[in-house]
Write a structure and sequence with these properties.
The chain is α/β, with parallel strands linked by helices and 486 residues long. It has 2 domains: 261 residues, Type I PLP-dependent aspartate aminotransferase-like (Major domain) (Aspartate Aminotransferase, domain 2, 3-Layer(aba) Sandwich); 145 residues, Aspartate Aminotransferase, domain 1 (Alpha-Beta Complex), CATH 3.90.1150.10. The strands form 5 sheets. The protein has a 7-stranded mixed β-sheet with strand order 4-10-9-8-7-5-6, with helices on both faces. α3 runs antiparallel to α13 and α18 runs antiparallel to α19. The longest helix is centred in the first third of the chain and has 25 residues. The mean pLDDT is 96. The structure holds pyridoxal-5'-phosphate (PLP). Pyridoxal-5'-phosphate binds next to α5. One of its GO terms (cellular component) is cytosol. Belongs to the SHMT family. Pathway: One-carbon metabolism; tetrahydrofolate interconversion; Amino-acid biosynthesis; glycine biosynthesis; glycine from L-serine: step 1/1.
């Protein structure tokens, strides 16, 4: 007698959803179905240390792929320029409610399509509150359309004549904080504050001195490559002293604020008048942006669309609501704490092996490795690590001699690996793999024979061996174990 075949285990809801969605897409454009399938397979295999990336939950991803996408909904909840928005109103109010509750904010605006857009909404809200509104009052009109041509020209000049103080790029600030290649640098006269040359830490006295001298309209705090916490109580004191509005861009560390790792002086929400964020980094939501603010700015922030944004993306707001609901669960606090614990384990593992870290360590999700200690540029280190299956990105270090393209640093971040369940022991293995590759890689000469900042050579077999070890580590922590890729 032959035994009956063992019943197949029931497929999970996530797995069924994945297969059905791909099947439907495959019927129209199979190459897109293949690219989606290949992307999840790549993500499953690679050891991802990109500090700004994460893995959103299947529930969050599924909330994005649906019919809400087909709706125009310019305006705000209950005040739309289009009919038939009742379901979008439900979605937007829920996302905003979750955001307010999660962060303890007076007001939340969940429409921005990205972090850049959230920052633009914030800048123009402050300009509208502090430059435009007083001009309308002086002219005794309620609307810009009612200004005389002369008053309108004067207002436009005044809007273009404001100042912003933010963190310098090589100290870890972001391009959208007033730098020339970005629209913010074309809008504002900008000055930046850096970090202490000895310790690499933010020097609040230097920020205060710069603020007193420059007297900005907006003081921006927040970063994308600074491995430490910022004391927002002190930043607010500085802003108040010079009459600036404090804006915090918490795009990178929003998950640590949501998960109550950053509390008290290190939680920006009670201190800043306006806080912006992305939703897809440590917060682990869909790709998008968000603005939180106090009551005084709420009416201006709500004008984001059409002030600087196009129609909202209702399907992405739905996914924001799902991700924010997830972040309100107690498990998220545990996740956030593990992000910083893992960053500290990674930092300790690297330091123990002799690596150089900017500021000597971390207290957030970022470890900034100064690869000059290995005799490499950031570009060489990033490429050598990628050959060995380790995905990172090169980054400037303070006063970087190699500039913003080649750089001298590699930025490492732990939100994504933490989502996969990697812990302290795994992070030590990651430190070992990084150190192995970099200590066995050397710069190579360009074809001309001159030293190159891009070319490098890794000892034979090292990349292959490390890639295998990285794959073994990732196999122990599968991404979306509930999804059978088939
Ligand atoms: N602000 C900060 C601090 C960031 O790190 C980033 C992205 O890296 C942004 C804003 C821009 O976000 P997005 O790419 O969603 O526009």
């Amino acid at each position: 007698m032959t035994a009956a075949p063992a019943p197949r285990p029931a497929e999970s809801a996530e797995s069924l959803a994945y297969r059905s969605a791909l099947g439907v897409i495959r019927g129209i454009e199979p190459r897109i179905a293949d690219a989606i399938g290949a992307e999840i397979a790549d993500q499953r295999e690679s050891l991802k240390l990109i500090a700004s990336e994460n893995y959103a939950s299947p529930a969050t991803l599924l909330a994005m792929g649906n019919w809400l996408s087909d709706k125009y909904a310019e305006g705000t909840v209950g005040h739309r320029f289009y009919a038939g928005c009742r379901n979008v109103d439900t979605v937007e109010s829920l996302a905003a409610e979750h955001a307010r509750e999660l962060f303890g904010a007076a007001h939340a605006y969940v429409q921005p399509h990205s972090g850049i857009d959230a920052n633009l909404v914030a800048f123009w809200s402050v300009l509208a509150q502090r430059v435009e509104a007083p001009a309308l009052d002086r002219a005794a009109v309620r609307n810009v359309n009612d200004l005389t041509e002369e008053d309108w020209a004067a207002l436009r000049r005044a809007l273009g004549d404001q100042r912003m103080l933010g963190m310098s790029l090589d100290a870890g600030g972001h391009l959208t904080h007033g730098f020339r290649p970005n629209i913010s640098g074309k809008m504002f006269e900008q000055r930046s504050y850096g970090t202490d040359p000895e310790t690499g830490l933010l020097d609040y006295d230097a920020v205060r001195a710069a603020a007193r001298e420059f007297r900005p309209l907006i003081l921006v705090a927040g970063y994308s490559a600074y491995p430490r916490r910022v004391n927002f109580r002190i930043m607010r004191e500085i802003a108040d002293e010079v009459g600036a509005t404090l804006m915090v861009d918490m795009a990178h560390f929003a998950g640590l604020v949501a998960g109550k790792v950053f509390t008290g002086d290190f939680d920006p929400v009670p201190h800043a008048q306006i806080v912006t964020t992305t939703t897809h980094k440590s917060l682990r939501g869909p790709r998008g942006g968000m603005v939180l603010c106090d009551d005084s700015l709420a009416e201006y922030v709500d004008r984001g669309c059409p002030m600087v944004l196009g129609g909202p993306l209702p399907h992405v707001m739905a996914a924001k609501a799902v991700a924010l609901a997830e972040a309100r669960q107690p498990a998220f606090q545990d996740y956030a704490q593990r992000i910083t614990d893992n960053a500290q384990s990674l930092a300790e593992g690297l330091l123990r092996r002799g690596a150089r870290l900017v500021t000597g360590g971390t207290d957030n999700h970022i470890v900034l490795l100064d690869v000059a200690g290995y005799g490499l540029t950031g570009r060489q280190a990033e490429s050598a690590l990628l050959d060995a299956g380790i995905v990172t990105n090169r980054n400037s270090v303070p006063r970087d001699p190699n500039g913003a393209w080649y750089t001298s640093g590699v930025r490492l971040g732990t939100p994504a690996l933490t989502t996969r369940g990697v812990g302290a022991e795994g992070m030590d293995e990651v430190a070992e793999l990084i150190h192995t590759v970099l200590s066995r890689t050397a710069p190579a000469a360009a074809a001309s024979g001159k030293p190159s900042k891009a070319k490098y050579v890794t000892e034979d077999g090292v990349a292959r061996e490390v890639a295998q070890r990285a794959a073994d580590l990732m196999a122990k922590h599968p991404l979306y174990p509930e999804i059978d890729l088939g």
